[in-house]
Amino acid sequence: MPVISAPYAFNEGDLYVDLESICGHPLYLKCEAFNFAGSIKLKAANEMVENAERDGILKADSVLVESSSGNLGVALSMIAASKGYRFLCVTDSRCNLSTRLLMEALGSEVHIVADQDSNGGFLGTRIEYVRSLCASDDRYVWLSQYTNAGNWTAHYRTTAPEIARRFPELDVLFVGAGTTGTLMGCARYFREWHRPVRIVAVDAAGSVAFGGEPGRRMIPGLGMSMRPPLLDESFVDEVIRVEEPDTIRMCHRMARHGFLFGGSTGTVVSGATDWLSRHDAGDLTAVAVAPDLGERYLDTIYQTNWLQDLYGDQVLAAEDGDRVPDTGDEAQVPDTRDTTPPKPLPREPKPASRAPARRRSTT
C-alpha cells in the first residue's frame, strides 16, 4: 500500500469490471475513478499543471482558470489546493450541484454561465468568459483542456499502456468523446502497437464533436457543442452516438447489480453494448473506459423526479421487467448557485522596477 503526501500522487489504474453478466456480451470496464479527484480527469489535470510549472507559466501568484462541466474542475480544485494555487472553474447550469459543492469545499471559486451559445450549448459562452478574464488580469492562467496537448499525452503515457499490459490480445476499445483527450491518447498509442485495435468513439447524441446537428444534452461529461480541436478522426475507426435515455437506463441497470457509475460511464457502456450486439463478439477481447462513478449524479440521473421531468415517466422502464427503485422522495438539496462574476483580484504592492511580463499560456 503506497504512502503519499499529495492527493494527486495516487491513482488506481489496474481495476477492471467484467460486465458480461450485466450486458450479455464479453466486455471489460476499466475503472478510472479510484483517486482523490474521483475521475479520469486527474490524469490530464496533473499533466497540464506540471507542464505549465515546468515551462514557467505558473507562478506563485497565478490563478488557474478553466472551463469544465465538472470532473476536470474537481481535479484542478484538488491539485490547486494541494499546491497552493487559486482556482476558478467556469461551468454552466448542467454541472451537478454536488460537483459544484465539492469544488467549493476544496477552496475553489465557481462561476456559472447562463447563456447558451449558437449551437445550443454552453461551451462557447464559457470559453468567451474565460478569455475575458485572462484579458483583464495577467495573473489568470488558462490551461485550455480543449487545445492542450497534455490532455491527450497523459493518456498516451498512462491509460493506454495500462490497458495494453492487462489485455495484450485487445481487439476493440470503446472510449467516450468529450474534449477527446482520452480518445486521442489511447488511439495514438494503439496505432503504434504490435497488433491492430479497433478504436470506437462513443459520443452523446446531440453533440457536434463528429458533425451533425446540435441537440439538447442535459447530462454533463461527454459530447461537445463544437468540434474538439484535439480530435484527429484518422485515428478513429467508428463513432457511436448514444441517446440520453439509453445512458440513464444503462446506469440504472449497472446500479441494480451494485455498480454505481456516472453518466459518462453509462454512455460508454451503452454504446459498447450496442456495438457488441451487432457484431460477432464471442471471440473478441473488448475493453471500455469508465471515466467516473455515480455519487455526483445522485441528484440527476439517479433522482426519479429529475428524470421524469426531463425524459418522461417511461425512461426507467427496464428491459427485463424489473422495477427500478423509486428514490423520488429523497430530500432535495437547495440550489444556491451564485452566477455573479468573481470579484477583481487584489493586487500586491509592486516594487519600483519590474521584471519583463511573462507570457501567458493559451494552450
UniProtKB/TrEMBL annotation:
<keyword id="KW-0663">Pyridoxal phosphate</keyword>
<dbReference type="InterPro" id="IPR036052">
    <property type="entry name" value="TrpB-like_PALP_sf"/>
</dbReference>
<protein>
    <submittedName>
        <fullName>2,3-diaminopropionate biosynthesis protein SbnA</fullName>
    </submittedName>
</protein>
<dbReference type="InterPro" id="IPR023927">
    <property type="entry name" value="SbnA"/>
</dbReference>
<dbReference type="Pfam" id="PF00291">
    <property type="entry name" value="PALP"/>
</dbReference>
<feature type="domain" description="Tryptophan synthase beta chain-like PALP">
    <location>
        <begin position="19"/>
        <end position="290"/>
    </location>
</feature>
<dbReference type="InterPro" id="IPR001926">
    <property type="entry name" value="TrpB-like_PALP"/>
</dbReference>
<feature type="compositionally biased region" description="Basic and acidic residues">
    <location>
        <begin position="335"/>
        <end position="351"/>
    </location>
</feature>
<keyword id="KW-0808">Transferase</keyword>
<comment type="subunit">
    <text>Homodimer.</text>
</comment>
<dbReference type="InterPro" id="IPR050214">
    <property type="entry name" value="Cys_Synth/Cystath_Beta-Synth"/>
</dbReference>
<feature type="region of interest" description="Disordered">
    <location>
        <begin position="319"/>
        <end position="363"/>
    </location>
</feature>
